[in-house]
Amino acid sequence: MTKGKPWSVEKEKQLKDLVVAKNSVSVIAKKLGKTSDAVVQKCYRLGLEVEGVKKKKSALSSSNVY
Predict the structure, then answer these.
(1) Is the pLDDT confidence value at 44 over 50?
(2) 64, 37 in Cβ contact below 8 A?
């Protein structure tokens, strides 16, 4: 898997600010010069909920519990 450029501390702060301001993934990606996929993955790693992206479900959902 190919990795892109690392996220600087400043880019991470901008990401958090843009997420809090309820910007869409595409807007955030354009402003930060990153791909939409990179933004979604970074938000997931940082525990941020971005507009229009559903959180990944846990492997142990209520339907899997016996």
Answers:
(1) yes
(2) no
